[in-house]
Write a structure and sequence with these properties.
Blueprint (H helix, E strand, L loop, with lengths): L9 E6 L6 H14 L3 E5 H6 L7 E2 L1 H7 L2 E6 L1 H11 L6 E5 L9 E2 L3 H9 L3 E15 L2 E8 L2 E5 L7 E7 L2 E8 L1 E5 L7 H4 L11 E7 L9 E4 L4 E7 L3 E5 L3 E5 L4 E16 L4 H8 L13
Parallel strand pairs: 1-2, 1-4, 2-3, 4-5, 5-6
Antiparallel strand pairs: 7-8, 7-18, 9-12, 9-16, 10-11, 10-15, 12-13, 13-14, 15-18, 16-17
């Protein structure tokens, strides 16, 4: 393995908890990094779930202040969680897929060490992605603030009726909408919930924000792509058991007249991909665009 580049001296390792058999892969990565002369730390959640007290643990803020990059071993959910926390610190992220889909954790576990060696040696493709920030205002005061890598979702509760929303963009009235909710998505999130609700795919380098209604009452309410300079304000006109979710991981309960202000975050995240990585290859693999009907009559 080549000598440690000056740009990567201390590396954080973030591991999805409660994953059967992951300890062996973690030990392989740790041995590989220590042999290469890197200092390695766990995030506190990883340290709590793995019985490896010899590895120091740091909070997300400590990682942001002390580490040169972070390796995430898990699925896209694990990546989403740490990416939101590290975005203000500009810590680049490397994803090893231990999950199912892996849009953001794109290095397969099989053969991961040679790929890591090349990335840490500087042979990689760096890609920056935007985030959204949202503020929930009640009577003019912020009651919740959150970041989203994928999306901010306003949605009704499972047992309640449709929610009625008013949407303004850049101080211009856009529409009143009756629906099950509204998804406001980054280009990264366009392959997630927004896609399942009928939204378009956006290349991650595009400067856009996608708004996708969830089961709208009026079929003329269609998805729309806005400039990423837009500020979107969603006001709750009517409804029960309404929440706003940031990447489906943090939420606030909403009341009528609450307003959610959403805009592009000043922070961005950087993914380090293997050399030769292609967004189109990822789409083709994850969305099964390269599959053909079988010749034996089975679907």
């Amino acid at each position: 393995m080549p000598a440690t580049p000056a740009m990567y001296n201390t590396i954080a390792l973030v591991v999805r908890p409660n994953t059967a058999g992951i300890e062996d892969s973690v030990r392989d990565v740790l041995a590989f990094l220590h042999e290469g002369g890197y200092s390695v730390v766990f995030d506190t959640d990883t340290a709590d779930h793995l019985n490896m007290p010899e590895i120091p643990a740091m909070s997300a803020q400590g990682i942001g202040e002390k580490c040169d990059c972070a390796i995430v071993m898990g699925g896209d959910g694990t990546m989403l969680g740490i990416a939101r926390q590290l975005a203000p610190f500009e810590v680049p992220l490397i994803g090893i897929n231990q999950g199912r889909l892996g849009f953001m954790t794109d290095i397969p576990r099989d053969g991961m060490l040679p790929v890591l060696a090349r990335i840490l040696a500087g042979t990689h493709k760096a890609e920056r992605r935007t985030l959204l920030e949202g503020r929930v205002l009640r009577e003019g005061k912020a009651i919740h603030v959150g970041l989203a890598v994928n999306d901010v979702v306003v949605a009704r509760g499972a047992g309640s009726g449709m929610v009625e929303l008013r949407v303004d963009v850049d101080d211009h009235f856009m529409y009143n909408q009756r629906s099950d909710g509204l998804i406001v998505s980054t280009p990264t999130g366009s392959t997630a919930y927004a896609l399942s609700a009928g939204g378009p795919l956006l290349h991650p380098t595009l400067g856009g924000i996608v708004m996708v209604p969830i089961a709208p009452h009026a079929l003329s309410n269609r998805p729309i792509v806005l400039p990423d300079s837009s500020e979107i304000v969603i006001e709750i006109n009517r409804g029960r058991d309404i929440t706003v979710n940031f990447d489906m991981q943090t939420f606030a309960s909403l009341m009528p007249q609450d307003r959610i202000h959403i805009r592009r975050s000043p922070h961005a995240m950087t993914f380090l991909h293997p050399e030769g990585w292609s967004y189109y290859n990822t789409l083709r693999e994850k969305l099964h665009w390269n599959e053909y009907p079988s010749t034996d009559g089975r679907i």
